Amino acid sequence: MRISVANRETGVFSPNNHVFMKISDMLDDPGLAIARASLQNFAKITPQYPGLRAPLDPEICADWAAQLSPHLDDAFGYSDSHWGMQAWYSIVTERPEKLIPMQCFPHVDGTDPDQLAMMLYLDRTDHGGTAFFRHRSTGLEALTDENFPHYRDALQADVSESGLPSARYVTDGAPHFERTHATSGTFNQAVFYRGNVLHSGVIDNNLPLPENPQNGRLTINAFLRRR
Asked: Which residue of 62, 102, 155, 215 is surrounded by the most CB atoms within 10 Å?
């Protein structure tokens, strides 16, 4: 699966100027990616992800990472990096009422600001892209090893006061979070951001969530680290 970085843009969002990079029309043949996804053995891999996943071929990951490395360096302020990538085909399938509490809050992929995330949107549903959030009581938008205990304790206090959120996908983040930015989820567009920024998929709670890659909310999501 060949990629192109010709349509690359970088920018920032929120008053904290979090960096993002997006590449439109990233796959030369997105239909091929969807067809390959249809041949995978999807499974529920972690309790955090509300759906099914199948790993992307490591050779494809290595090829993409090599092509993306100079652009990630340029966008996120690094130099001479060789990025490694782990990636999965992912389909959101869990009905809102079946979500566990941890899936009803914005989350981070870890507290390391040097780990980047990629979301490549391959669906034509009416679900959205990815939204980013600020925690109201602390003002935090990105979590680190240093500030995570403060965030954890404050969120626990929030929940003690108002209770757990309803079993629904995150929308505007209320009452404990506010949305700072959202990507469009445009077909065949990839978005890159630091994985320690609070975020959540934009999933419409009233729409179907098919398991079929041909008509479900299919993405390729990845974690990228410098080597």
From this structure: 155
**3-class DSSP assignment, residue 174:** coil
Residue with tokens 């959120």: 165
- Residue entry with tokens 């870890």: 110
* Tokens, residue 157: 């206090």
Instruction: Report which secondary-structure segment, H or E, holds 33.
Output: helix 30-37
- Provide the β-strand partners of residue 41: none
Residue 99, number of CB atoms within 10 A of its CB: 19
Alpha-carbon Rg for the chain, nearest whole angstrom, is 17
Strands (E), the chain: 8-13, 18-23, 51-55, 83-92, 116-121, 130-135, 177-182, 190-194, 199-201, 217-226
Please say whether the beta carbons of 130 and 217 come within 8 A.
no
Determine the Cα–Cα distance for residues 24 and 10; give it in Å rounded to an integer.
11
Nearest C-alpha neighbor of 10 from the set 24, 22, 25, 18: 22
Residues counted in the chain: 227
Per-residue pLDDT tens over the stretch 160-180: 999 999 999 999 999 999 999
Residue identified by tokens 């890659």 is 213
Q: How far is CA 35 from CA 53, 57, 119, 139, in A?
A: 15, 14, 18, 43
Instruction: Decide: 118 and 65 in contact? Cβ < 8 Å.
Output: no
Q: How far is CA 151 from the centre of its chain?
A: 20
